[in-house]
Amino acid sequence: MTYSPRRTFLKGTVALSVAGLAATAGVLRAPTVLAAEYPTNAFVAKKIDDALKALYGSSQVANSDAIKVKAPPVAENGAVVPITVDTTLANVESIAILVDNNPMPLVTAVNISGADSYFSTFIKMAKTSDVHIVVKAGGKLYGAKATIKVTAGGCGG
Amino acid sequence: MATARKIKFRTREKDGGVEVVAQISPHPMEPGTRVDPKTKQKIPAHFIREITLEHNGKIVATMLSSGAVSADPLLRFRLKNAKKGDKVKLSWSDNKGESGSGETTVDF
């Protein structure tokens, strides 16, 4: 069989993709200090309830005034939307940020093991959406939300 | 040649604790769902999946992330019972097996 440059290129590309998939599935992962597995199912879930069930084992969330969400009402660039979460709930274990109208709502989950229950970062939003903050504290889930209008979507569209 | 990814830190007193601001840059945080408009190919996923924050050698926060966090991730945490001179370390690893870490000393 003769190998054309194009055939070799395609083989190489497929090999890279397979390696990428395997790495994501945890087969070829880099060493990590985390004992727990990366919750892939939670991150690929298409609905908030499914993401929460995969992440925390439940989607029962009680609204809480003790969670402060700081976010702009209008984001001009959906690729960099600042979100800050601060909560006075006791025994906080984890803080998750989920975007209703993103193809995969779970953006990030921060597990707290000694730091203060505070977190801030910039996230991508595909379009105008509610942003849900879910806090796991004392084994239960509490939530708050902010509605952010996006004038230019941030998922490359 | 591998890209040198650096971590920039800033620490300051804030709201009864010490705020640690850290930026890992550059990192594309490519979700894997975007299509290159020129080639029509999907741009492969390349994003940080795990970030750990250590305070004086103890892991105090672990961030599990997706490609929906913005590129060159800028993060803010707040430490409890922190004082000047305390050691802070941030470590990260991504879906392609790349990893890195950086350290700073609390100062304000």
> Which segments of chain A are poorly predicted (pLDDT under 50) over 5 or more consecutive residues?
8-35
Number of helices of chain A: 3
Helicity level of chain A, as a percent range?
A: 10-25%
Largest interface: A-B, 45 and 45 residues
User: What share of residues are in beta strands of chain A?
Assistant: 35-45%
Give the class-level CATH name of the largest domain in chain A: Mainly Beta
Helix-strand string of chain B:
EEEEEEE
CATH topology of chain B: Immunoglobulin-like
Strand order of the largest sheet of chain B: 4-3-6-7
CATH class division of chain B: Mainly Beta
The number of distinct β-strands of chain B equals 7
Task: Specify the helix fraction band of chain B.
Answer: under 10%
Shape of chain B: elongated
Distance between the termini of chain B: 36 Å
Profile the largest sheet of chain A: 6 strands, mixed
What summary fits the major beta sheet of chain B?
4 strands, antiparallel
| Quaternary structure classification | heterodimer
Secondary-structure class of chain A: alpha+beta
Shape of chain A: globular
What is the third-level CATH name, the topology of the largest domain in chain A?
Answer: Immunoglobulin-like
Report what the structure shows.
The complex is a heterodimer of chains A (about 160) and B (about 110). Chain A is of the alpha+beta class. Chain A folds into two domains: about 30 residues; about 110 residues, SoxY domain (Immunoglobulin-like), CATH 2.60.40. In chain A, about 20% of the residues lie in helices and about 35% in strands. In chain A, strands 1, 3, 5, 6, 8 and 9 form a six-stranded mixed sheet that branches. Chain A has a three-stranded antiparallel sheet with strand order 2-4-7, with no helix packed on it. Chain B is an all-beta fold and about 110 residues long. Chain B has one domain: Immunoglobulins (Immunoglobulin-like), CATH 2.60.40. In chain B, the strands form two sheets. A four-stranded antiparallel sheet of chain B has the order 4-3-6-7, with no helix packed on it. Chain B has a three-stranded antiparallel sheet with strand order 1-2-5, with no helix packed on it. β6 of chain A pairs antiparallel with β4 of chain B, so a sheet runs across the interface.
